[in-house]
Amino acid sequence: MKRAAAILCLFLSVPVGAAEYRRADNLDLRGQFEEILFAAGGEVSADIESTDDVFVAGGRLGITARTSESLYLGGGTLNVKNTQARTSNIAGGEVKLSDSKFRELLAAGGTVELDRVQLEDDLILAGGRVMTGSDSKVGGSALVAGGDVTLDGTFSRDTRVAGGQVVLAAEFGGPVHVYAEKLVVKSDAVIRGDLIYTAETADISPEAKITGERRAVPREKRESDWAGAAAAFSVWGVFFGLGLLLIPALVASAIPGIVAASATLISGRFWESLGKGVLLVIVFPMVFAILAMTAIGLPAALAFLPFLIAGKVIAVTSVAYVVGQLLRGQLGRGAGPQRKRSVFGWTLLGTIVVMIALWIPFVGVLVFLVSFFTSLGAVFAVASGHVFRRRSA
């Protein structure tokens, strides 16, 4: 067991570089930072510039930040303004973003509001109440879920929305898919593509400009689709329970490219992967809960759940794969190309070591959780990058 713990600890000893830490009940954070920044406090005020990733959490957080890398924010009340980042991942009770620019944005909260926010690429929003202002612009695809959703501004590509009440007042450059109890399309809305919707009531202004097909999909048809996905997930869940020990090895053999790429990303960008993993563990249950709040959103939540479980399975597989490769190196088997049978065998051995290590009181569980969060973040980065590349191709 000591050897198992040592192997897992070795996995965590990847090169992560230096980092800066700030913590106070009332934190006033200002200046320039060249290393990864971790900051937390009860009430946080920040005006910073950074050349690396930024992680900030607070009960009340007001921040202006400029970073060439990623921004991770969490807290009760978040006010983000005049901020620039490559990607931004935000979760909180009340989230407001204004006068900011990102390449990609993921935000979730009780209330999420965007005002004069510019995105080069994709947007994901989830909240009880979600609003985008008329001066906001999304350059890529958009996925939005909430109890009450109002979309204004410009959406350049395809947009998918699920909610209790959905109000469309924006200019959409691609098809729009809506699943809602009530759909309202305002007179100033422009949809340069199809409008495909499922709703109990639909109020579509005759003055709205829709260049593509306008099609209402019966709820029964969509719910049957969701039911099929839920049934498939149930069968998969039984298989998972029976084959828990073999699943990581089978997954690693089936998708060695994704697993190996995730392992490489873990080694090269450990802290970023860890931060993304922790945020995903917070955000995904919130998205699921928000979707499940309404009868219409529940099927979407059930369809969303298998993807969450699949991501976690691949993350566990990545942990077992890395441990197996460490064992392979320790036993002098080299680091050259491997056949699928070799990948299967070493990942299975890594799975056994991980399960044994979990019996070590406290330390085993702690090391596994850190490993899992890091792997989950890496898997998400690799998978989303693959999807975006296919979508742009």
Tell me the layout of helices and strands.
Blueprint: H1 2-12, E1 19-33, E2 36-50, E3 54-67, E4 70-81, E5 84-119, E6 123-132, E7 137-138, E8 142-151, E9 154-155, E10 159-168, E11 171-172, E12 176-185, E13 190-191, E14 195-204, E15 209-210, E16 214-216, H2 219-242, H3 247-254, H4 256-268, H5 270-291, H6 297-330, H7 340-357, H8 363-392
Parallel strand pairs: 1-2, 2-3, 3-4, 4-5, 5-6, 5-7, 6-8, 7-9, 8-10, 9-11, 10-12, 11-13, 12-14, 13-15, 14-16
Helix pairs in contact: 1-6, 1-7, 1-8, 2-6, 3-4, 3-6, 3-7, 4-5, 4-6, 4-8, 5-6, 5-8, 6-7, 6-8
- What is the helical fraction, as a range of percent? 40-55%
Shape: globular
Rounded average pLDDT: 75
Q: Radius of gyration over alpha carbons?
A: 22 Å
Strands, count: 16
Distance between the termini: 48 Å
Oligomer: single chain
Summing up helix and strand content along with how strands pair, one would put the structural category as alpha/beta
Strand-residue proportion: 35-45%
| H/I helix tally | 8
Q: Could you list the spans in which at least 5 consecutive residues all have pLDDT below 50?
A: 1-17, 226-244, 386-393
What does this molecule look like?
With 393 residues, the protein is of the alpha/beta class. The protein is built from 8 helices and 16 strands. It has a 16-stranded parallel sheet that branches. The N and C termini lie far apart (48 Å).
